[in-house]
Specification:
CATH architecture: Beta Complex
Number of domains: 1
Shape: globular
Strand order of the largest sheet: 5-6-7-8-3-2-9-10
Number of strands: 10
Oligomer: single chain
Structural class: mainly beta
Order of helices and strands: EEHEEEEEEHEE
Length: 128
């Protein structure tokens, strides 16, 4: 259905601990790629969306498969021109090793006490 036309070398991988990113998959975090919108295309099919107000007061839209509840990517008005792509939706089995560990952890105030920070990753208590 969707395709990343190329993964830029300047891509930022993030580890998010917001309730919304952890609730649906039932995990303690969400590993994401911040990819320029022009590098991500819908090849076929259509998406369903859900929009909510983010902490910034601007809209955050979740784009998910029309046939199942899998979130493919998120668009946040506060991050214009960027798609926040869910790593688990990529077909590359080696994508985690190829891209390395996340360089940024956001909403760390929500991280369970028993989860450690990722060494070397920038830490932010909120999303801004």
């Amino acid at each position: 259905m969707t395709c990343i036309t190329s993964i830029p070398t300047t891509v930022l991988s993030t580890n998010c601990v917001t309730f919304n990113c952890t609730f649906a998959p039932g995990t303690t975090n969400s590993y994401n790629l911040m990819i320029p919108s022009d590098k991500y295309k819908i090849l076929s099919g259509s998406l369903r969306t859900f929009t909510r107000e983010g902490d910034s007061g601007k809209n955050v839209t979740y784009n998910y498969c029309q046939n199942c509840p899998t979130v493919l990517f998120v668009k946040a008005e506060a991050l214009d021109g960027v798609n926040i792509v869910k790593m688990g939706t990529l077909d590359d089995e080696n994508v985690y090793d190829n891209l390395g560990k996340p360089g940024l952890e956001i909403y760390t105030k929500n991280r369970p006490q028993w989860c450690d920070a990722i060494p070397g990753a920038q830490q932010k208590e909120s999303g801004s």
